[in-house]
From TrEMBL:
GO terms (BP aspect): microtubule-based movement
Binding-site residues, ATP: G220, Q221, T222, G223, S224, G225, K226, T227
Keywords: ATP-binding, Coiled coil, Cytoplasm, Cytoskeleton, Motor protein, Nucleotide-binding
Protein name: KIF25 protein
Compartment list: Cytoplasm, Cytoskeleton
Ranges of compositional bias, category Polar residues: 400-410
PROSITE patterns: KINESIN_MOTOR_2 (PS50067)
Pfam family, one: Kinesin
Disordered as annotated region, ranges: 387-411
The keyword Coiled coil belongs to this UniProt entry's keyword annotation: yes
Domain of life: Eukaryota
A molecular function (GO) term: microtubule binding
């Protein structure tokens, strides 16, 4: 058994050895096959990679050529653009020079325009008189009289013969009718609109920004349409603006809109506007924008004084800064709520005071450029004397801030050279002149009528003194004329809008108003003669 076991062991070892050789042989053949397969696949991959690299190289060359062409085209385009830019720069330089020349010519032409406009206004008259005839209204009928008497009272006796002549039929019982004519710069018939009236007023507002004070006032008897002409329609008994009816707006709201339109065409910040609203009641001035400690608006009595420069001024008068026409109308409407009215036999809402709405236009200029704004030497000298240095609170704050920041001498010098010129636009709705017998007023209303008629008489005396070129003009005879002193005399532009009732019932008052307008026209003729303006003939 031990021998068998030993032989079996040898056989097993031989079998293991043979099996190992066989396995080794098998592995060797598999490796050889795998190596061959890998080598073959590798050759195929190398061949494919080589062909792909060739295609990639060719594609890269094509793209490189395309990019090169694009770069060359871009370079050529940039060169052309540079050349065009140079041409544009040359043209821009030429245009800048042309613009500078045109600007200089424009400034010269603007100064000529101002001078010509002022000459035109002066040729027409520094004091111009327009006359407006209102239509017949239902209250023109004389209640309580016979039908014949009513028909006589409501008969129309004032007509616009043409746009410069008014015809009045004057008749008395038992006498033949006499036609009288009056000449004015413009006459409006009873059909002409508010637009037509303001179209002749607007040119005066250009003079306002040219450095002249302007005053527009409505004069006439009670119920002749002065408030309608100046303000517009009345709503529910209160003087309020019918904004929804733009065509019905009066001179005051339209003039404000036009002023702000003209200011919008100027450099921003060079102008600002302040408004004040006063009434002259019983020869006393009341500030209609003054407020109490609770902020409620109420009328405060003020006084008018003459400054050292000979200008009229109302100390402590409330001035509100406004930036547009809507703010202005809001303030004026507040003041109108306090205006004194009283019903009479002639008019249910008769105004018992003179309303004066003042727009103060402040122009900021530098000392070196001051004379350039007004080429007229006399105007420049006059405004230079009037140039003041009182800024509104907002402007003072800005000025103090800029002064604290100004560290260089140039900035300090520029601040010191800054001046301001104030011009005024005064819009006046005068109380109506009236006959006591016609209006039927008594008591306090009778006293009001006395003050109204005396102040209107003082206004006529002032215009008469100016027409006769007297050495003394009685401005101080009335608070009204004292307040309007700067806008009636001197170089100021005054437009008197006569308002006439056309009925026979108001003939006496209409003739008185037309006589006032005739005296005012004498002022303009005297001024034109004094300035020795030569009017060219039609042929020339």
């Amino acid at each position: 058994y031990q021998g068998l076991a030993g032989r079996s062991t040898n056989e097993v070892l031989q079998l293991y050895a043979a099996h190992g050789q066989q396995m080794k042989f098998q592995r060797s053949s598999v490796v050889t096959q795998l190596h061959g397969a890998i080598k073959k696949r590798l050759k195929q991959d190398l061949k494919s990679l080589h062909s792909f690299a060739l295609e990639l190289s060719k594609d890269f060359q094509r793209q490189s050529k395309t990019c090169l062409y694009q770069v060359l085209a871009a370079v050529q385009g940039i060169q052309l653009q540079n050349e065009a830019m140079k041409m544009f720069q040359i043209k821009a330089f030429d245009l800048e020079q042309s613009l500078q020349e045109v600007t200089e010519r424009y400034e010269k032409e603007k100064q000529k325009r101002k001078a010509l406009h002022n000459s035109l206004i002066e040729l027409r008259g520094n004091i111009r008189v327009h006359c407006r005839i209102r239509p017949l209204l239902p209250f023109d009928d004389a209640a309580g009289h016979s039908q014949d008497r009513q028909r006589s009272f409501s008969e129309k006796v004032a007509y616009a013969a043409d746009d410069e002549t008014i015809l009045v039929k004057c008749s008395r019982p038992g006498h033949a009718s006499v036609n009288k004519t009056f000449q004015f710069e413009r006459v409006y018939n009873d059909l002409e609109s508010q637009d037509a009236v303001f179209a002749d007023v607007a040119p005066l507002l250009t003079s306002l920004l040219d450095g002249y004070n302007v005053c527009i006032m409505a004069y006439g008897q009670t119920g002749s349409g002065k408030t309608y002409t100046m303000l517009g329609p009345q709503l529910e008994g209160n003087l309020a603006f019918a904004i929804e009816e733009e065509s019905e707006l009066g001179i005051i709201p339209r003039a404000t809109q036009e002023v702000f339109r003209l200011i919008s065409e100027k450099p921003p910040g060079s102008y600002w506007v302040e408004v004040s609203v006063v009434e002259v009641y019983n020869n006393e001035i009341f500030d209609l924008l003054a407020k109490d400690s609770c902020g409620k608006v109420f009328g405060v009595k003020r006084d008018v004084v003459t400054t050292r420069e000979g200008k009229s001024d109302v100390p402590s008068l409330t001035h509100e800064t406004v930036e547009n026409a809507s703010e202005f109308l809001h303030l004026v409407n507040k003041g109108l709520q306090l205006r004194v009215t009283h019903p009479t036999l002639v008019h249910a809402h008769s105004s018992r005071s003179h309303l004066v709405v003042t727009l103060t236009i402040t122009t900021v200029v530098f000392g070196d450029n001051f004379g350039m704004l007004w080429e007229d030497e006399q105007t420049s000298q006059r405004l230079n004397k009037e140039a003041s240095f009182t800024f509104p609170q907002k402007m003072r704050d800005n000025k103090s801030t800029s002064s604290s920041r100004a560290s260089s001498p140039v900035q300090l010098e520029a601040t010191e050279k800054m001046k301001q010129v104030k011009t005024r636009l005064q819009l006046v709705d005068l109380a109506g002149s009236e006959c006591v017998g016609m209006s039927g007023v008594t008591g306090a209303a009778l006293r009001e009528t006395s003050f109204i008629n005396r102040s209107l008489s003082a206004l006529a005396d002032v215009l008469g003194a100016i027409a006769e070129q007297r050495a003394h003009v009685p401005y101080r005879n009335s608070k009204l004329t004292h307040l309007l002193q700067d806008s009636v005399g001197g170089d100021a532009k005054l437009l008197v809008m006569l308002c006439i009732s056309p009925g026979q019932k108001y003939l006496t008052e209409s003739m008185q108003s037309l006589g006032f307008g005739t005296r005012a026209r004498q002022v303009q003729r005297g001024q034109v003669k004094k300035k020795n303006f030569s009017v060219p003939s039609k042929g020339k």
